[in-house]
Structure formats: C-alpha cells, structure tokens
C-alpha cells in the first residue's frame, strides 16, 4: 500500500548550507510541511576526514588507523574531526544552549568511537587477533559519525524553528546486534506519524547486509531507496546543489544547457557508469522494481519541478539528452598474435581486474587485441599488468591515459548520432582515439586525449543537443 508521502535525500554539499534549506525545501506551512521523510548525508568534506579523501585518496582517521605506519596519528586525526564538527555546530547554532546540545551529542559519539579503537588496537597487539578482520566494522563505525551529526543537527534546527522534527538514528549506536536493513527501517518507523512528524534519518544504516561493504560511500542512496520501499512512498526525491542538465553548465555555459525534464532509469545507469550519479545503480534497482518514481531537484530552487526518472518513460523523439564524461581513464590494451581462436584470454583478464578491484568503463576487441577502458588507481592497474604478464608471457600490454566523453539518451537510434558526433568533433579539430557505438542505442562513447576533454564535451553538446533543442537557461550558482 502506498501512502501520500515522499522520501527525500539531501546531499552533503547541500547539507552544508543548512540555513538556506530552511528557506527552500523546509519552507512549507502546516500540513504541507509533513508527509515527508528526509535522509541526510554528512556535511561536505566530513566523510573525507573520517575515511579518506574521495578524490585524492589522502588518509583520514580510517586510513591512518588501518595503516601499520599510522601509529597514534589516527587519534590526533579523530580529535581534529571533533574540532571540525564543533566548528560546524557553531556555524549552525549561534544560540549557546543549542550549540552545547549539538556539541554534547557529537562528543559522546566521538569519544565512544575513540574508546573502541583504543581497545581494538590493544586487543590486536596480541597475535590471536588480526586487525584486518575488524576493519570493515571500523569503517562503518567511523562513517556513521558524519550522518549522525548532520541528522541530529537538522532535527534540532527544525525543532528550534517550530517544526515537529524527529531524529531517526539508523546507525546502530549502542544497539544490540544488527538487523536486516528493511526490518531495521520498519522498526524505526513503527511509531512515527508521518502526518504530524518530520523524520530526519541518518544516511548510514547499520544492518546485517553491511552497506559499506557492498556500496562503500554510496550507502545513503541505498538507505533512501529502502526507506521509500519499506514505507510505501509515492515518490523518492534527491536534492542536489544543481539541476540534472544536458551537460555541466560551468563547462558548456548556463545559456546553452537545459534541464532534463524527464528520463528513465536506463539513462541513470549510463550516467552512473560515467561517474555522474543521479542515483546509485543498486538504489535505482529498488525503486524501479517497486514502481516508485525518482525526482532529482535543485535544493535551492524549490519551485522548479526538476527531473523525473521512471522505468517506462519513452522519449517523444530519438536523440541525445546528456553529454558527460570522465577524465583519468586508463586504456589497457592487451595484444597477443596467438589469440585468434583460443579461449581463456577474456576470462583471465577479467579475473585479474576483479582481483585488483578495477572498474571497467568500456571494452573493445578484435582478432588479437582486447582493450579495456578502466577506472581505478594507477597502482592497482599496474598490478593487473604485472599479473597478466606472468599469466600470458607471449602477450604485450600497453597502458594509456585518456578521457571518455559520452552522449546518452533513451533512444539514439534514427538520429544519425555517430555521423553527427564525428562531424562535431571534426569541426572542433578533435581526432578521437576511439569510438564505441553499441547496437543497443543508449550511449555513444568517444575516447579522446585528456587535453581535449573539455573541448570534446562542448563540441558534442553543440552538435547533438543544442542543434536539436532550444536550451532553457540553468541556474548553476546554487
């Protein structure tokens, strides 16, 4: 049974602008304020400090604790996180009493985690206990601190402004044992009256499935999807600090891109593959199977309808909807003259990539060459190269760093996308390194030199989107 409520997620960058959110997505009156559930991420940058920097990989508390060379540095890093969290509290709560309440909450959590890590370090100093077997739990516990702070603070801030908000803690803090995720969510919502209360839910949820093991830092969107499914929501909403647009407006220009009014989960999957996640693929699967539409909005433009994503939204006409891409892609070319007619090469390469946790963006092959376009660290990919050299001594591997630009749409057939893409690139003076155009026409991938990435995005957007659609200006200042 579905209820007239929505389940909505606020990302970390938007969460960091809490007071602005009071005047946008939380600015409703009386009954319109309720029948909504909010799943919140940690404030921007907080999870980087707790785990590791998402882009640079610089070690946070977890990285230092997990490293034998980290020594007591993790302890100092945890204290630095506590100071950063208290500064965030000061920014949000000018009132001393509220600020002290927020500080007291996070200090209890920080010191509880510190005690656990000290005890674990002491325990693992004995040979019978291995630190490696506990690191996943440590990662979960540290990660949960960020969402606990943002959810608690948001509920506190809303209460201060007359909203009947409730802090819903899914982190499992001091809980006896873990439950399956759906059961954990159902138990927490059992006593909540959505027509009178506004639940503010932690984006991290402790459960037997161990979300961070499967989804790592994409867990908050999985929490969103399961809360929506378990509570029977009419719609799931993700509030970002920007609109889902036909390209990055900062690159292409706000006067040239347009907001994607509607699309389907297939397009969302292709975007995820390019690192431009509208929603985590596993989270999308839950919503898709439950028949729950997803809406992506700009948190700071509450009157704009945003983008609706559904399974059965067919396009009114074929064509590219979005042009996006990814820099720092590695092309691993595997060549063996003796490959023709011999089985086992594909399986061997895939096994090596899986062992070293390297993600495959795309793949092409011919009689004696297999090329994988990969996302991952240079260190991991070099290990793959070494393993392949040992497994296939007659083969040669070469590694090249490139960028991939992709034109994505619900239906690219019948729109001469490939011919028009080549023409657009040629007009811009860009020679592709490679092109992948699958029989199933939902995306076209163009491999270019990294230095050509921005120009390729602009050229393809101009040739495939702008010439077919009248652009709607996008506000990217939010």
What can you see in these coordinates?
The protein is of the alpha/beta class. The chain has 2 domains: 6-241, 3-Layer(aba) Sandwich (Carbamate kinase); 322-466, 2-Layer Sandwich (VC0802-like). It contains 17 helices and 14 strands. It has helices at 12-15, 18-22, 46-50, 61-66, 73-92, 96-123, 135-160, 181-189, 211-215, 219-231, 249-252, 265-273, 281-290, 345-355, 378-391, 417-427, 453-466, and strands spanning 6-10, 36-40, 165-168, 198-202, 235-240, 262-264, 294-298, 307-310, 322-335, 359-365, 369-375, 396-408, 434-437, 443-448. The protein has an 8-stranded mixed β-sheet with strand order 3-4-2-1-5-7-8-6, with helices on both faces. It has a 6-stranded antiparallel β-sheet with strand order 10-11-9-12-14-13. It is globular and about 70 Å long.
List keywords for this structure.
478 residues; alpha/beta; Carbamate kinase; VC0802-like; 2 domains; 8-stranded mixed beta sheet; 41% helix
- The span between the termini is 37 Å
Profile the largest sheet.
8 strands, mixed
Overall tally of domains:
2
The averaged pLDDT comes out at 91
Query: Which strand-content bin applies to the residues?
Result: 15-25%
Coarse shape: globular
User: Any idea what the radius of gyration is?
Assistant: 24 Å
- Lateral strand order in the biggest sheet: 3-4-2-1-5-7-8-6
CATH class of the largest domain: Alpha Beta
Uncertain spans, ≥5 residues at pLDDT below 50? 470-478
CATH architecture of the largest domain: 3-Layer(aba) Sandwich
CATH superfamily of the largest domain, by name, is: Acetylglutamate kinase-like
Structural class: alpha/beta
Q: How many beta-strand elements?
A: 14
Q: Helical stretch count?
A: 17
CATH topology of the largest domain: Carbamate kinase
Helicity level: 40-55%
